[in-house]
Amino acid sequence: MNVPATREDLMIVNMGPHHPSMHGVLRLIVTLDGEDVIDCEPILGYLHRGMEKIAENRTIIQYLPYVTRWDYLATMFTEAITVNAPEQLGNIQVPKRASYIRVIMLELSRIASHLLWLGPFMADIGAQTPFFYIFRERELVYDLFEAATGMRMMHNYFRIGGVAADLPYGWIDKCLDFCDYFLTGVSEYQKLITRNPIFLERVEGVGIIGVEEAINWGLSGPMLRASGIQWDLRKVDRYECYDEFDWEVQWQKEGDSLSRYLVRIGEMVESIKIIQQALEGIPGGPYENLEIRCFDRVRNPELNDFDYRFISKKPSPTFELSKQELYVRVEAPKGELGVFLIGDQNVFPWRWKIRPPGFINLQILPQLVKRMKLADIMTILGSIDIIMGEVDRLEYLKEVYGMIWVLVPIFTPVLGITIGVLAIVWLEREISAGLQQRIGPEYAGPLGILQALADGTKLLFKENLLPSRGDTRLFSIGPSIAVISILLSYLIIPFGSNLVLSDLNIGVFYGSLFQVLLPLDFLCQDMDPIINIPF
């Protein structure tokens, strides 16, 4: 009978990037001591798409369809921050009706995002029923989006100075009906989840974040408010027209996963209150600042407004971004979504830096899961609420650094070979010049320091002029012979790890040196018949 041996060392487990509870292509390298978590390292880089650099090569109108891919569950917020940045940069006024429409769309998007957080979060901790319930209300929200924007998820609805289109006939009544229905749905969620003893056992006291910790880690959104800090950018910055509505900031003081759940449930109720007030008090007037299309558009004076007079399809307006910089932020469902914009008197941004809330909030995950159980990782990760579309945009730098370190061992021998070639050619030229007692053409640069570079370049990229008494074939293949011999010499020398000479034999070294110098001597004798240098 074979008795299994008991192992007492630590175990390293990969969670993701294809784990269904990872909420995207997130990989966690978890070090376990039995069921206890010793360490956790998040690994990104599976979904990078270079959104910042794309923004710096597009106009704002061209870039708007891209931004909904950051956080594809709260698309209205990514559009809002994209148009708010140039609006503040150019001091563009937004009509009152457009501002009300924006608030309605933003709060509907907040509800849709929190709903799709709630369902998978409950599935992560073992409750499958709410996962199916949340799609009822979420589909109703998407019906409203489709009626107003034409799209259910990727809307492309916000514009600089307003929105793309006014609300259709009957949309306001339909949205009011949804608000009344949704309040009953939230009550159903609270009865089903909030007092459930199994749910409370999984989330209460798990992943606690203190007040100072939340501030020091730069957390925002429900992660920050669940730790006892009443900070909401809708109240702090007073953007759009949020200060005209009566609503309360939702917050808790325990800082655990249960508190983050309660904050998000409360925010959905407050969003309904804001939407109802906006729908009842929405003013008339234009839905877009049409004047900005005429004044700030970059035109070609040579065409003399040809496109406006003779082309039936008018091109989208472009806006010159003034030469200044600013940081703009909004209160997204996951926290503070910001953009740092630098204009350069051009239609393209000179710098477009995104501050995604999910990326900042994910930093604290390794600290929260230490000394917890393996099953608590899903609870804590789900309570953070991340979307990898916005989290993964910074891993590009890490990929670049990784490629550089991979290429360093490759370029180090090449650099050594190049320096060796230049040094040998310089030595050969110095000897040649000394024998002929001339320094004119063999003395390039101040004090002759550029002579080696000039001779090496000439050696590797031969001139088209061939000597009259030289061997043409040998003259053409001479550089290749010299370089190949040097490469062979490097293969002989025994290198160990990190390019350290492991076992250098002086005889092998002299042999490789002779192998390098012999072809050069042969070339020198044939290339210049006047010179005959015995090495």
Give a verbal description of the structure.
With 535 residues, the protein is mainly α. It is built from 21 helices and 8 strands. It has helices spanning 51-55, 60-67, 75-89, 96-124, 129-149, 171-194, 197-203, 211-216, 222-225, 233-236, 257-281, 291-295, 306-310, 357-362, 365-369, 376-384, 388-391, 395-436, 451-460, 472-492, 506-527, and strands at 11-15, 27-33, 36-43, 158-159, 162-163, 325-332, 335-342, 351-355. The protein has a 3-stranded antiparallel sheet with strand order 1-2-3. It has a 3-stranded antiparallel sheet with strand order 6-7-8. Strand 2 (27-33) and strand 3 form a beta hairpin. Helix 2 packs antiparallel against helix 3 (75-89), helix 4 packs antiparallel against helix 16 and helix 20 (472-492) runs antiparallel to helix 21. The radius of gyration is 34 Å and the shape is flat.
| Arrangement of strands in the largest sheet | 1-2-3
Which residues sit in consecutive blocks of at least 5 with pLDDT less than 50?
525-535
Q: Count the strands? A: 8
Q: Mean pLDDT, nearest integer?
A: 80
Shape: flat
Backbone structural class: mainly alpha
Helix fraction by DSSP (H/I, runs of at least 4): 40-55%
Assembly status: single chain
Taken as a percent bin, the fraction of beta residues is: 5-15%
Query: Please, how many helices?
Result: 21
The helix-strand sequence is EEEHHHHHEEHHHHHHHHEEEHHHHHHHH
Summarize, please.
The protein is mainly alpha-helical and 535 residues long. Helix content is 52%, strand content 8%.
Give the topology.
Blueprint: E1 11-15, E2 27-33, E3 36-43, H1 51-55, H2 60-67, H3 75-89, H4 96-124, H5 129-149, E4 158-159, E5 162-163, H6 171-194, H7 197-203, H8 211-216, H9 222-225, H10 233-236, H11 257-281, H12 291-295, H13 306-310, E6 325-332, E7 335-342, E8 351-355, H14 357-362, H15 365-369, H16 376-384, H17 388-391, H18 395-436, H19 451-460, H20 472-492, H21 506-527
Antiparallel strand pairs: 1-2, 2-3, 4-5, 6-7, 7-8
